[in-house]
């Protein structure tokens, strides 16, 4: 499933580039070690575009997920692939490992003590295979050096949007996110993975709450009581995990949601300000400019 999902994602990117009069940035290929078609977990044939060329330079390599029951038998079957992935990491080629695909990152022995996201159901088994690695069920994605890892399909989209943002800028990434909407813009997760690159589960729960309730008044005292912190400890733990304060994170979430509303609705700036939690439109514009270095009107142009 992750293979076709990734191809569909970059198809959307190509359509948006064409609509904007831009030259296509990405050429997507499905490759295997031997160049032969493979079989999915459901038995469907996966046709490939060719074989992996060890001396070729790739801009991004995505390692898809596979059935968890194969984890115990991969050691003898994956030697060549592990050596290739090791070379990619050594040459700082961007790699995105999707759920169980993180096995190949850990197997290189270059990820010891690195925090890696994977599916929650396989954390114990992966810890047994690679005790020097740190596996977590982070629902977004983690980024360390050139390595991206994710434990969910939603996290895969978030990772791809983050990579596109690096290549083509925040505006284009937000445009992609908006065109991938299945529901209203208000329900789309903020694209702020740089503040989730940690494994403090209690802080992640606070972040989840702020993501979903950003338009509400979120006082530190109320958050601390709700999540069983003291105010001082909440501020300390949040800052340690995310590198910003809870109030700064809330501002980032509100601005991110405002961007999506700017791209997908005909709402006025004042209406958007109110929708994301600001009653004073001038204060909203000031916060937006502080975060993005431009006003909402300038950003959308």
Major beta sheet, strand line-up = 5-6-10-9
CATH architecture of the largest domain: 3-Layer(aba) Sandwich
* Rg (C-alpha, Å): 21 Å
Q: What is the CATH level 1 assignment of the largest domain?
A: Alpha Beta
Weakly predicted, low-confidence segments: none
- What is the total number of structural domains? 2
Q: What's the N-to-C terminus distance?
A: 36 Å
Order of helices and strands: HEEEEEHEHEHEEEHHHHHHHHH
How many strand units? Answer: 10
Q: What's the story with the biggest beta sheet?
A: 4 strands, mixed
Question: Secondary structure elements and their pairing?
Answer:
Blueprint (H helix, E strand, L loop, with lengths): L1 H18 L11 E2 L5 E2 L5 E2 L3 E2 L8 E4 L15 H12 L3 E5 L4 H4 L8 E3 L5 H7 L4 E3 L4 E4 L2 E4 L2 H16 L1 H10 L21 H12 L7 H7 L4 H12 L3 H19 L4 H7 L5 H12 L3 H5 L1
Parallel strand pairs: 1-4, 5-6, 6-10, 7-8
Antiparallel strand pairs: 2-3, 9-10
Helix pairs in contact: 5-6, 6-10, 8-9
């Amino acid at each position: 499933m992750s293979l076709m999902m990734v191809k569909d994602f970059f198809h959307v990117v190509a359509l948006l580039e064409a609509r904007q009069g831009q030259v296509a940035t990405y050429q997507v290929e499905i490759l295997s070690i031997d160049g032969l078609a493979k079989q999915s977990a459901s038995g469907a044939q996966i046709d490939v575009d060719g074989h992996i060329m060890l001396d070729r330079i790739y801009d991004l390599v995505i390692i898809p997920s596979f059935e968890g029951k194969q984890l115990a038998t991969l050691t003898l079957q994956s030697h060549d692939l592990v050596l290739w992935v090791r070379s990619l990491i050594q040459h700082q080629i961007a790699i995105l490992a999707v759920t169980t695909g993180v096995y190949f990152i850990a197997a290189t022995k270059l990820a010891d003590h690195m925090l890696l996201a994977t599916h929650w159901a396989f954390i114990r088994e992966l810890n047994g295979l690679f005790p020097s690695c740190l596996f977590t069920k982070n629902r977004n994605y983690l980024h360390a050096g050139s390595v991206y890892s994710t434990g969910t399909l939603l996290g895969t989209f978030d990772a791809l949007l983050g990579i596109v943002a690096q290549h083509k800028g925040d505006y284009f990434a937000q445009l992609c996110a908006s065109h991938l909407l299945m529901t209203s813009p208000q329900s789309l997760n903020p694209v702020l993975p740089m503040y989730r690159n940690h494994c403090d589960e209690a802080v992640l729960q606070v972040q989840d709450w702020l993501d979903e309730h950003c338009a509400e008044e979120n006082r530190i005292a109320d958050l601390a009581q709700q999540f069983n912190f003291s105010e001082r400890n909440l501020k300390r733990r949040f800052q340690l995990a995310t590198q910003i304060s809870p109030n700064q994170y809330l501002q980032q979430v509100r601005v991110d949601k405002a961007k999506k509303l700017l791209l997908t609705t005909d709402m006025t700036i004042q209406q958007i300000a109110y929708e994301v939690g600001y009653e004073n439109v001038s204060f909203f514009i000031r916060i937006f400019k502080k975060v993005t270095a431009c006003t909402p009107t300038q950003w959308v142009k």
